[in-house]
């Protein structure tokens, strides 16, 4: 399933995802300038900024390897040659090199090439899009860790909300609590207030997923509205739903159930 096939919003082209990986990495690296890499990361309990950099660069390198190999089934191993820096002074350059590996992998890959993917879209573009939002969200984590206020482009943020909601039903292998997102037809509506983006999630006895927008979407059992950037950070657990920018309506127990079990 491509994002253009989902009911929430219009698609963002894979070329935008590819370019944005580079841009988001540049902003991540900028946040490291002069930073103490031992500081804790608010969005990632028990991680230091050093851990965050290593994770983000490792993901970029792993996804790049998967793209180069055009994997057609789950890889037997996720080990990849990381070539870690010798000391803390090398982490920024190492992350920059990780993004360069991604750019090289993107350049040689047709985004429409069939590939194994753990999510809804079994094509190379899945990994390009997934890499972007791994990088973007962790860029905001790094900025918060060093006392900066993150800014996210609303169009990219809305695309990130779409990517999250499209793929969450497939994430049980590493996010086991999503198996608890079951119901008898209850619906939750997620809407961006500053750009296009409106999604309806339905809980079923056998699972959950995006549903076509009903004729009267306001009739959802519960709803969340926020600017796209805030909605993205809320879904990723970086913002509390009691924040000023977030408006919730409807069944509070249903909302609590969703956010307690939708950790990505």
From TrEMBL:
GO cellular component: plasma membrane
Occurrences of domain MDMPI C-terminal (ranges): 156-257
Coiled coil location: none
Record-level Gene Ontology MF annotations: isomerase activity; metal ion binding
Record keywords: Isomerase, Pyruvate
Domain Mycothiol-dependent maleylpyruvate isomerase metal-binding: 20-142
Identification of the protein by name: Maleylpyruvate isomerase family mycothiol-dependent enzyme
Lineage: Bacteria, Bacillati, Actinomycetota, Actinomycetes, Kitasatosporales
